[in-house]
Amino acid sequence: MPSRPLVRPKFIEPMAAQLVQELPDDPRWIYEIKFDGYRALLIKRGDKIEIRSRNDKDLTSAYPGVQAAARRLRAETAIVDGEIVAVDASGRPSFQALQHRRGYAGYTPVFYAFDLLHLNGEELVRQSLEERRAQLRLVLEGSGVFFSEALTGTVSEIVDAVRGLGLEGVIAKRRDAPYRPGTRSDTWRKLKLDRQQEFVIGGYRPGSNGVDALLVGYYERRALHFAGKVRAGFTPAVRRDVAVRLRPLHADRCPFVDLPNAKTSRWEGGVTAEQMHEMQWVKPRLVAQVHFVEFTADGRLRHPAFLGLRSDKKPSAVVREQ
Questions:
Q1: What confidence category does residue 282 fall into, taking pLDDT thresholds of 50, 70 and 90?
Q2: pLDDT tens-digit readout, 61-71
Q3: Which residue ranges form the domains of the chain, and what is each CATH number?
Q4: DSSP string for 148-169
Q5: Is residue 313 annotated as a catalytic residue, yes or no?
Q6: Which of 6, 39, 83, 187 is least surrounded by CB atoms within 10 angstroms?
Q7: Angle at CA of residue 97, ends 96 and 98, nearest 5°
Q8: Tens digit of pLDDT for each residue in 137-181?
Q9: Rounded-to-integer distance, Cα 15 and Cα 189, Å
Q10: What is the rounded CA–CA span in Å between residue 321 and residue 195?
Q11: Residue 84 contacts by C-beta under 8 Å, 6 or more apart in sequence?
């Protein structure tokens, strides 16, 4: 038989998981930690390494330690799917440490790998998850790129353990499933234990350190809907850094379709017509990661806190997840 032609490794749009309220409890599934970091691909071509975000931005120069570990992968060419995570000496992750290096000494960016999409000239996306992960473990051996181990126990035991560690959530994946690039497939299901998601920044209230509060929202039928104001979670330095990022995006018009939306002047509520002039509107180009307790009955974020900016998510892809 003629040998299969070798394929040059190139960017593959990552597969995504469906958000669920309950995970399947079935031996046909494996369970992994849902990491709180940046989704990324490691692309290896000999000694050349690229780190690409899930929307194909080049992150290589930002993570030299991850790049060095990827050079030690046991493959001539490979595409490894995983997550960049900032961890402390005990292995505990922090998204804020990943986002804001200053003030977070003791945290190191590492790469947790959970899938292998290409190996030595062959694309593996049609293989089962179990086959891909078996090869991935061998490729990672001794490299310094970490393998995302499957969690053992019943689903309730796994969820309780992950919640007890204060981690973001659990992902369930079908063992026999192929990799479906660029899709949100029900063969991958995620359960969030720590309520947070991405929101689009549409404006802010200026303050003494640049930003007093962010005005954030999500898209629904191509319209940007207001979700709330985020004042907590900032240090003075972060407020100044975010203001610098927002300054080139200043705009005259409010991008939210449902503002003003309040009759009272209570700050933690909506935005009154009188308050509109206090806000600096921006083009909806930046995405913030926000932790919150819940959505209120009128669709506002309760006790939101800023975690960081995300460069790996398109604003147009941000929708209400919960």
A1: very high
A2: 999 999 999 99
A3: 16-192 (3.30.470.30), 196-317 (2.40.50.140)
A4: -PPP-S-HHHHHHHHHHTT--E
A5: no
A6: 6
A7: 90
A8: 999 999 999 999 999 999 999 999 998 888 889 999 999 999 999
A9: 11
A10: 10
A11: 37, 38, 40, 51, 59, 63, 66, 98, 109, 110, 111
